[in-house]
Amino acid sequence: MPRAGLSRDRVVELAAELADQTPTGFDDLTLAAVAARAGVAVPSLYKHVGSLADLQRAVALVGVRELARRSVAAIAGRSGAEAVRSLAHAVRALARERPGLYLASQRAPALARAEDVELLAASAEAVDAVEAALRPFALDPDARVDAVRAVRAAVHGFVALEAGGGFGMPRGTDASFDALVGILVDGLQGGAFARG
Fold it and tell me: 23 falls in which pLDDT band (50, 70, 90)?
């Protein structure tokens, strides 16, 4: 019989909390750690999740949904440069506030099977928000793909390095992040992604 108060949602929530404790927490997640946090033996978790892979997939789904939710909210009522800046800051805020959940959101595509419509749809929604932010720049389809990838890679690269302590120079990272986003915006406005 399942432990009172313990459900699949609660197990996933506990796993996400554990993942948030370190920048690599999602990758280091174990059923033993989640069971200890829940105050149960590992076999008790199997009443709620099928395996560690099932639990990781569930945490990734929560993460990518949160990334999509924040991304959509960030661009609502904004367009062009303002939307790109707001989106970048929203992604960075999630990575700082919930590092494990953010990392899970980035691992989601690798965890999704071809038939995992739910996880793939949530991932697509997060990417669609980036594409929507770039729509005012009137890029052709190939250039839009390049721009979406460039924005995602630049923002993710910055927040991953920041989370891992990769910026040791004696200057705060906020101004550097703003500079990075400014470079992206300048590139979008200046035709860096135009086909010639």
Answer: low
For domain 8-189, the CATH class is mainly alpha
Q: What is the DSSP letter of 114?
A: T
Residue 94 clears pLDDT 70, i.e. is over it: yes
Reported as a single tens digit per residue, the pLDDT across 139-177 is 999 999 999 999 999 999 999 999 888 998 988 899 999
- Residue 30 is given by DSSP the state -
The runs of H, that is alpha helices, within the chain are: 8-19, 31-38, 42-45, 52-75, 80-97, 99-111, 117-134, 141-163, 173-189
Name residues whose C-beta falls within 8 Å of residue 142's C-beta, 6 or more positions apart in sequence: 195
Q: What would you report as the CA-atom Rg of the chain, rounded to the nearest whole angstrom?
A: 19
Distance between start and end Cα atoms, the chain: 65
- Domain residue ranges in the chain: 8-189
pTM for the complete prediction? 0.90
Closest CA to 34 of 46, 18, 51: 18
* 3-state DSSP of 126-149: HHHHHHHHHHHHCCCHHHHHHHHH
Helix/strand/coil (H/E/C) assignment for every residue in 154-170: HHHHHHHHHHCCCCCCC
